[in-house]
Amino acid sequence: MKVTVRITISLKKGMLDPEARAIRHALENLGFATEALSTARVFLVTMEAAGKKEAKERAAEMCERLLANPVIHRYQIEVQE
Amino acid sequence: MKFAVVQFGGSNCDRDTWHVLQEVLGVDTDLVWYKEGLPRGCDAVVLPGGFSYGDYLRAGAIAARTPVMQDIRRHVQDGKLVLGICNGAQMSAEAGFIEGTFAINAYPKFLCRPVHLRVETASSPFTSRFREGEVIRLPIAHKEGRFITPPETMEALNREHRVAFRFCDEKGAVSEETNHNGSLESVTGVLGQYRNVLALMPHPERASEDVLGSADGRRIFESMIRHVEIEG
Hints:
The structure holds two protein chains of two kinds. Chain A has helices at residues 18-29, 52-67, and strands at residues 2-11, 40-48, 73-79. Chain A is of the alpha+beta class. In chain A, 35% of the residues lie in helices and 32% in strands. Chain A is built from two helices and three strands. The longest helix of chain A is centred in the C-terminal third of the chain and has 16 residues, at 52-67. Chain A starts with a strand and ends with a strand. Chain B contains five helices and eleven strands; from the N terminus they run E-H-E-E-H-E-H-E-E-E-E-H-E-E-E-H. In chain B, the strands form two sheets. Chain B has a nine-stranded mixed sheet, with helices on both faces. In chain B, strand 10 (187-191) and strand 11 form a beta hairpin. The radius of gyration of chain B is 16 Å and the shape is globular. The N and C termini of chain B lie close together (8 Å). Classes of the chains: A alpha+beta, B alpha/beta. The A-B interface holds A 15-16, 18-19, 21-22, 65-67, 69, 71-72 and B 57-58, 61, 65, 94, 100-101, 103-108, 146, 148-150, 182.
């Protein structure tokens, strides 16, 4: 079956997020007060897999081997319905 | 003695590096397109600066997963030298040749300026032509150069004298003021576990001739040449 997974890569807690800081500052300039802001990157990956479990496992391997940098990133995988 | 400079799509300091090695220092140096693989009998590899694969995903991430990197990994495991400059340093980090990573600068813009560096160790194949504590001047040109590593790894790097260069002022004082990109402990040059890999954000190839304002970078290449001469 074709399965689409949604992979979100974000910075680990406590990691400096300079882009987020700059964006937050720009929002402030536009009059938007914000409590917190962080950036993340989303990948939608469609693959042929036996089931959702297999697709999730493969997505995790993709994160470990390429999509995320284990020093600074964490990742979250959701199977798209 | 043979050196190789590996070119990827988007490398742009490859010819400058080749020029210094081949034309300034007279070392037999091959410019190698990444699809060709490493030449036989090559003693040292330089991964040059640039923007391989447009810095897609993360700087150096895609290049680090090309097949030529397997050749380079074997070359590292054989104890031979790899110098990663700027984008090449990012590739070395992404390939796991050093412990740590180069993230987006603390102030997230491209920095291009000459900086002072303190030589933290002279006992490596890349720094033997310097004195420990010496202050040198090289240019930086990067947006993703902020060195990060977990605290326990940083401790190990310090304990094993694997920090090669830190940002400093003209007198050698290291402070947050001279920490151009917000790197952990101002580190901008770091050695791999067996000291045969140097990941270096500043550009020694742009400061290897007096006419360019500094020839300090040349001594990094000269150190490598001396190492190869001695170790064979």
